[in-house]
Structure formats: C-alpha cells, structure tokens
Hints:
Elements: E1 2-7, E2 10-15, E3 25-35, H1 37-44, E4 57-65, E5 77-80, H2 90-93, H3 101-105, E6 120-124, E7 128-130, H4 137-141, H5 143-155, E8 163-167, H6 171-182, E9 186-191, H7 194-202, E10 206-209, H8 214-221, E11 228-231, H9 237-245, E12 251-254, H10 266-272, E13 275-278, H11 284-295, H12 314-319, E14 330-332
Parallel strand pairs: 8-9, 8-11, 9-10, 11-12, 12-13
Antiparallel strand pairs: 1-2, 3-4, 3-6, 3-14, 4-5, 5-7
Helix pairs in contact: 5-6, 5-11
Amino acid sequence: MRAAILSDGRFSVENVPDPEPQEKSVILAVSACGLCGTDHSIYSNRLLGDGAILGHEIAGTVVEVGQGVREWTAGDRAAVIPIPYCGRCELCTSGQQNLCGPGLAAMMGCGGAAGGLAELVRAPVSSLRRLPGAVVPPLGALVEPMAVAWHAVRLGNIRPGTRVGVLGLGPLGLFAGLVARQKGALVFGTDSRPHRVASAHALGLGAFAADDQPDDRIRDLTRGGPDVVFEASGRPESIERAAHLARVGGSVVLVASYHSPAEMTPGHWFNRGISLLPSIAYTPQDFEEALDAIATRRIDIGPLVIRPRPLEDVQDVFDGFATQTESAKLVIDPSI
C-alpha cells in the first residue's frame, strides 16, 4: 500500500507492506483522514520517530476481517475511535475513558498503531462505529474532532441560555461553538484571522475580529462576561485572557493542545472564582453522540468540508498549515 511516511521531519509517499488483520480487528480502506493541530504539533515538534504514519481522524470501508469478527463484513463503512481504551482501569470503569492513560498513549497515528495517512489501516472492532449511508467519508472523518468539542461542551455543563465565549475560531473552536449553540447556548467568538470570523458568521455564530475590541463586545453582549469560555486557539497566553473574559464565578474550558508554558495569575482566578477545566479527548458516548448529530444534521458541518486532497499533497498541506486562509477542515483521501 501507499502511505505518507514521516522521516527526518518530512513526509514522503512510499510503498509499504499492507497491514494484516489480527484477532478481533479489521482492515479498512481509508476514504478520508482529517488533519488537525495535534498532527501539526507532532510534525513540527518532531514528537515521533522516523517511520511514523500519522492521522487519527479516520473514516473508511472494511476490506478484510480478522479471526473472531462476526459483526463486520467487507463493504461496511465505519468511523474510527483512534483511542484503544483499556476498559479495565478505574477511569474507564467510572465513565472517564477520555483520561485512560494506556489508551491515550496508544492512540492511532499519535504514537500508537499506524494512522490513517495510508491506503489501508488496521483497527480493532471495538473502535469502529457504523457510518449511516447519508454520511459521506469526509464527514465521517470529522466525527472524531466533533467528539472532542462534544466532550468539552459537556464538561462545561452547557444548558439553554448559557452564555459562551470562544477564543480561536479554527475548526475545533467552530465545532465547540456549534455544539454549544445546538444545546441552547448564546455563543460569541473571536479570532485574529478575518477569514475565520467570516466562517463563524456563515455558520450563524456571533464573532468579532481582533481589531473590533472583541473582548469588550463579548462582555457587553453577555452582560458581564460569558458563563463559560472555550479556549480553542492553542495559544498559552490566551488562557489568562480567557479568565479575564469570563464572568465572576465562570469557567474556562481548555480544548486545544499546548506545548509551551503559560503565564497565569492564580490570584486573579482565585479572587474571581474562575474554574479551570482542561478537556482532553472524549468518551465513547461523546463519539457516538457526535456521530448522531452529524448523521441527523442537527449540526451541519458540511460547509467546513472542502474537496479532499490526495496523499501526495500531505507535505504541502503541513507546510501551509499555519498560514492557510481557509477555515475548512483539512482532509486527505488516500484513494485518489
């Protein structure tokens, strides 16, 4: 099969051996693999060794099943939960699978099994969720990042009438805003990139550009500040900004990845009673609810999907990741 292999800090498309099915696993022909900030961080910070195959936002079609697989057959379409939860630790058994240490350490495309930037990928049947016929492959690949946003919104205890602020309107921030709105929240976001603000407007979210005094505008519109602020920019300095934006007694939910230190003033958080809620990954329930919301179009993320790129474009996609002028999700289709 062809795969995008990361070696010496660059990607090259190479022919590598096909994966073989193992017990209770299947082989999928990858039809869509989304890329996100985590992938770019792995790439830019060289967090994985040579030979890695990235990609954890995966949708595909079963082409071969392993021993003991009865519920899946060739031709079935699936979205993949890339975290192999152990199912045995105290966190898994208490419904906090998103914090399962063994599962996170073995995440597909992020240091565990090979990811979806390849024509074929092996996945355990426990990680598969059926894709309804109405869900096209690029949307199937976006279930995973939608599940990240779904978990963050659940952690933030969003209810009808909750006032929400979103710092950073990349795909993850937009997903968080859309999920919060679907649950009845009043949502306002901000971003330094005008095209991202325009995308938020196109999706029906309130949003302000950096030169529009966004924090003051959001405080005014939420009558003193949001109840919950989602920090989705990934900028460490924005964590303290989120605490200043939130109302007294409010919460800050961290939904991005951070790879450098952040300066924070604990007294400010303490005196205003601001709660800090780091949100990582998702539970199986979050993933399934996100899939249902996409399949039923209760949340329409179609406008965020552009034409997928071929596997040969992976290096160009990563080179332009930080400067892209699209808010759409970046999706690779290894079959084209």
